[in-house]
């Protein structure tokens, strides 16, 4: 349950104690603000689970960055801003991941032998991200625009002032890099699993 909002003087004194490493002071801060921060973030993300995760991250951030608390004028406003930024970043990350999953599910079959478990899908997406990081810069940029933003070949060509033919060639090259990387890594995982079970 939230306690009454502190005066500016009380807030400064509490932040000073947290800055000096007093964990009980952090607990006191959480008792006063945790529910408020949670409800604020919940309105942004519309998920209790995500709101709880972000709220905890906010207080972890306060503790980890306690040496800089003296620079904060209003801890309440700062926590709301921090929570909002974390919520926005998390939603962007989840949106991008959902776009990647939809792209691969619709246009590419990366699975071997039919249905795969969600954990295995996560492994495959990690392999894909690693492969993308190894692509030449222009090839990588075009692939990401296609995958994450869903741009058409024409839109990508306009953005980079390229011909449609060049865009298609770069995408073809990126798909070849992905296939080669994923096949190689998958074979290594299969081999490792086989040897581990012998």
UniProtKB/TrEMBL annotation:
Residues annotated as domain RNA polymerase sigma-70 region: 29-93
Gene3D superfamilies: 1.10.1740.10, Winged helix-like DNA-binding domain superfamily/Winged helix DNA-binding domain (1.10.10.10)
Record domain RNA polymerase sigma factor 70 region 4 type: where: 128-174
InterPro entries: RNA_pol_sigma-70-like (IPR039425), RNA_pol_sigma-70_dom (IPR014284), RNA_pol_sigma70_bacteroid (IPR014327), RNA_pol_sigma70_r2 (IPR007627), RNA_pol_sigma70_r4_t2 (IPR013249), RNA_pol_sigma_r2 (IPR013325), RNA_pol_sigma_r3/r4-like (IPR013324), WH-like_DNA-bd_sf (IPR036388)
UniProt keyword Transcription, yes or no: yes
Keyword Isomerase: no
One Pfam family, short name: Sigma70_r2
Keywords, comma-separated and alphabetical: Sigma factor, Transcription, Transcription regulation
Family to which the UniProt record says this protein belongs: Belongs to the sigma-70 factor family. ECF subfamily.
NCBIfam families the record matches: Sig70_bacteroi1, sigma70-ECF
Protein name: RNA polymerase sigma-70 factor
Organism of provenance: Olivibacter oleidegradans
């Amino acid at each position: 349950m939230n306690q009454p909002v502190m005066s500016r003087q009380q807030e400064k004194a509490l932040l000073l104690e947290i800055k000096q490493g007093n964990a009980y002071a952090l607990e006191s801060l959480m008792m006063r603000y945790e529910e408020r921060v949670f409800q604020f973030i919940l309105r942004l993300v519309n998920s209790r689970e995500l709101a709880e995760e972000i709220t905890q991250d906010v207080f972890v951030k306060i503790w980890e960055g306690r040496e800089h608390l003296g620079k904060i004028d209003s801890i309440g406003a700062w926590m709301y801003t921090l929570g909002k930024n974390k919520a926005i970043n998390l939603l962007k990350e989840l949106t991008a991941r959902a776009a990647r999953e939809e792209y691969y599910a619709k246009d590419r079959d990366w699975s071997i032998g039919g249905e795969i478990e969600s954990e295995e899908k996560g492994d495959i997406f990690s392999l894909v991200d690693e492969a993308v990081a190894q692509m030449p810069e222009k090839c990588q940029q075009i692939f990401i625009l296609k995958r994450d933003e869903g741009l058409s070949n024409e839109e990508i060509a306009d953005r980079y002032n390229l011909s449609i033919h060049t865009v298609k060639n770069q995408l073809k090259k990126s798909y070849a890099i992905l296939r080669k990387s994923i096949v190689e890594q998958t074979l290594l995982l299969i081999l490792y699993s086989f040897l581990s079970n012998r």
